[in-house]
Amino acid sequence: MNKSHIYRRFLTFLTFSVLIPLLCLSCASNEPAAIDPEKAVYRLSPVTRSAEKPSQGVYYCIFVRSFADSDGDGIGDFRGLTEKLDYLNDGNDSTTDDLGVTGIWLMPMFPSQSYHGYNVDDYYAVNPDYGTMADFEYFLKEADSRGISVIIDMTCNHSSVYTDWFISSRDPDSPYRDWYRWANEDDAGYNLKQKIWGHNVWNKDPKTGTYYAGLFENGMPDFNLANPEVRAEFKKIVSFWMDKGVSGFRFDAAGHVFNSAKLKAGESSQEQAVGWWKEICGYIAAENPDAYNVGEVWEPASTRAVYTAGLKSTFHFDLGTAIVDTIRAEDGGKNNLANMLYGDYQLYAKQNAEYIDAPFLTNHDQNRISGMLKGDFTKLKLAASLYILAEGVPFMYYGEEIGLMGAKPDEQIRTPMLWNAPGKDALQTTWIDSKYNKKTVPVAAQRKDEDSLLQYYKRLIRVKTAHSALYEGRLTPVWTGEPELISWVMESDAERAFVIHNVSSEAMTAALPAEAGAEDLQLVFATYSDTSVSADGYITVSPYGSAVLAASR
What we know:
Strand order of the largest sheet: 10-9-3-2-1-13
GO biological process, one term: oligosaccharide catabolic process
Family: Belongs to the glycosyl hydrolase 13 family.
Shape: globular
Strand content: 15-25%
GO molecular function, one term: alpha-amylase activity
Number of domains: 2
CATH topology of the largest domain: TIM Barrel
CATH architecture of the largest domain: Alpha-Beta Barrel
Keywords: Glycosidase, Hydrolase, Signal
Oligomer: single chain
InterPro entries: GH, GH13_cat_dom, O16G_dom_2, SusG-like_C
Helix content: 25-40%
């Protein structure tokens, strides 16, 4: 958090502590609600949130094109996003209108020929569909004033074919030739006929007859990150955006920057990749010690762990699938999910003791979670609890909190956010029709229903960001012995929390495990009001419900 934000919070404190008592008593009904932790146990209520660093709290992934449209062209933009910031976090702990997220991950917002933006034309500009650089800078300023950190998507693996760099590199004598991976048919060590995901890795350039690597497609030529000039350029790029106020980066395709398919036979892949991530993340940390970076390494935990040595934080792929499978089975086995998490964390810790996990349910490349659980809000609440109350920095995908539906192809996973009934929200985007969301309940309606999925997400995010054990603690599995219950302990320097989930359709009662330190734990959160803790140390958890008990250390 920068000094300007701390100063604004100080002014806010002065306003409430000095000026408000001077107002007439008739204005009392307009005062912010008092913060009472006991009220927040069973219902949405204000809490004091203490997660403030970019590497703490809860992030919200936004596809700008689909979020909020300020100029009526059907495409989301920075001004629309700025107008919706109070929906995400209004900066006031005494309100409950906002979702409460502490961070935003913006999917690509650079100029691009594609709708998704992952093939970047210019790394020093913003997509004109989304507005101007001034619009983006104003958005960053307004986000910061609310305590929201912003990280942006960064593609170091590839660019578009329209960058000046690539266009120049097509000339064998160009100083940019070695910025990309080029090869001739007779070059030893390369397999120019190699395929990945059903297409060719190496693409013949019709202009020169030579081949360039494009791991994802021929319109996305791969950078040669072994070239010191390319590495230096990306340091300039991240500095440029940090100077604008960005708090870090989500590195796209982080596991592929030295993919063996584009290397010479025998050339190291992971070793070079980890070396690059250590270098760029170290550079970012030197400029801003509080910066938060997270990498996309869509691989098993053992491979993600290797990359954690350089990236520190990676997305927890496979967790969403494990959560869905557990909920569908209504059986947690022998605390299987908690044990899986702990095992993965142990792998990370061996590579980097300061690792930060980034759990999520689904992202912009996967079918949406709501469809997987058939739109059942009860089960969607449980799924949300299972990942948000785990270790690390959880990442929500926009619309997840209202049960937005979506399935492949990708465009149908990235459809417009639903704010209100058709025609009732001027900021509604319309760039594509969503065939899966004809019956999805929009934000406006869910705000009026205290039992809605949206209101539950607000509660979850508040408990996550109010308790240090939850937002910076480490997880240890602690089981009750009941297969329907999944549980763990989270511990930070200041606090201990016991988290328990009932994955079955029946209420479950179990003794609080001695390892949880049950003697001084207090119930601070429960999905449903019939969850309770008895004086003799037993907890009853509602069907598909979750609970958190916490105590200071």
